[in-house]
Predict the 3D structure of the following.
Amino acid sequence: METEYVRRADIINTFQIWRTDLTQQIEENIEFPHIRSDLKVCRTQLDDCIHAVQDIPAADVRPVVRGEWEYISFMTVKCSNCKETFHELEGDNFCPNCGADMRGGNIDG
Ligand SMILES: [Zn+2]
């Protein structure tokens, strides 16, 4: 399975939305102590999840920069990202100047 990377802030933001929802449900169920108790347990477990995500070391990755070869003339192409021109490079997978990935495909993956 290919390794996938996600932004820590995106995960924590999602958990915070769920936490806000749980807190609202706790307040709405003031007449039902057993439900409140269960919801508080859920919120505590969610807090544990948030802390666990915060504690995971960051991976050494950067966003993929994508580009494409723009045809200039016979045997000459230009990188759409850094605008550098090259000779006899059409078909290479990466720009030798900026490292842009020229393989196309989905921006998300
Ligand atoms: Zn480039």
Notes: Strands lie at 69-73, 76-79, 85-87. DSSP finds two helices and three strands in the chain. Residues 8-55 form one domain. The chain has two domains: 8-55, 62-104.
